[in-house]
Amino acid sequence: MTTNGGFEPVFCTIVPPHVLDRLAQAEDPLLHGPARRTLRRDAYERTQRRLTTVVGAPAVAALAEAEPGKPRRTVYDARHGTALPGTKVRGEGEAPGQDATVNRAYAGLGATFELFLKMYSRDSIDGDGLPMDATVHYDEEYNNAFWNGEQMVFGDGDGEIFLDFTLPVDVIGHELVHGVTQYTANLDYFGQSGALNESVSDVFGSLIKQYTLGQTADEADWLIGAGLLAPRVTGEALRSMKEPGTAYDDDVLGKDPQPATMDDYVRTGRDNGGVHINSGIPNHAFYLAATTLGGHAWERAGQVWYDVLTGGELEQDAQFTDFATLTVKAARARYGEGGELQAVSKAWERVGVRTL
């Protein structure tokens, strides 16, 4: 169940539409072909998600043998088709196979489960042991990964611009965290609330990577999707929380359009009001708070963000100011008037977001 309003899952992808739109206009068919097919497939899946929301999603069957606090992972292989979930290839507790993509997906589901359980006492995506399903090898040269409200889906990429979407663990985490948001604050996927939805996934996706690697805030690269871009691309990742707008600058992809502060906020009707673009602002605020505090970012900074996401006060149509104000309130409630409160308050001030 959600803490705010009705249950309304949305279709969320890791690669923003503006990136695929740019690729779809390329002259080279090796570039525009996969991008156009991906855009068509995304449009279809988005429509299916809306229809499922109207008629209701099928209930998830309970697993009799499942234990509280234990993951329930299943990985399926679409075998380059589009029927979901596909053929089961690895279940919970089964040994790794020969397919590295399957193994990475399985491990990424586990890493996400572990962070939320051990750090925030949350049992899976819904907090109540929801089974975690993922499908790999989806479609032909599919340039995306998505959460469709029920499960994870990964493409293999086209090999020209994008590589296998299971390569970066933060991509896996990012998409699964859309599910956590779905079951908690249920943030509307449009405008600033949509940008917050995307930012929360980037924040915890990055924390999952940092937790897996045992990194401190200062050691982390704060990149989303590092290792996803093919060698021909001039860029490091899809997004940078440390320096929004610097993740890539490529002849084909163009330049990363994310702003770091409200001075450069982008007003657009595309991408649901720029949800993948303006998420750079709250992303940067989290980076500033986490690096000011130091240590492991999933501890104090991550705890404050988690408290806001799950606290029941975050409205579905929340704006940046609303979210920022609640993080200040949460920092004060958990840590008092000390350094945590100052770090969070100052971070929002530096990105130009007011707190009330």
Give a brief description.
The chain has 10 helices and 10 strands.
Fold and architecture overview:
By secondary structure, the protein is of the alpha+beta class. It has ten helices and ten strands. It has a six-stranded mixed beta sheet with strand order 1-5-6-4-2-3, with helices on one face. A two-stranded antiparallel sheet has the order 7-8. Strands 9-10 form a two-stranded antiparallel sheet. α1 runs antiparallel to α2, α4 packs across α5 and α8 packs across α9.
Alpha carbon gap, first and last residue:
29 Å
Instruction: Determine the number of helices (DSSP H or I, runs of at least 4 residues).
Output: 10
The beta-strand count equals: 10
Q: What's the overall average pLDDT, rounded?
A: 93
Classify the oligomer: single chain
The helical percent reads 40-55%
Cα-atom Rg, whole angstroms?
19 Å
Summarize the biggest pleated sheet.
6 strands, mixed
Q: Order of strands side by side in the largest beta sheet?
A: 1-5-6-4-2-3
- Strand-residue proportion: 5-15%
Q: List segments where confidence is low: pLDDT < 50 over at least 5 consecutive residues.
A: 1-7, 52-64
Going by helix content, strand content and strand pairing, the class is alpha+beta
Please trace the helix and strand order, writing H or E for each element. Answer: EHHEEHEEEHHEEEEHHHHH
Shape: globular
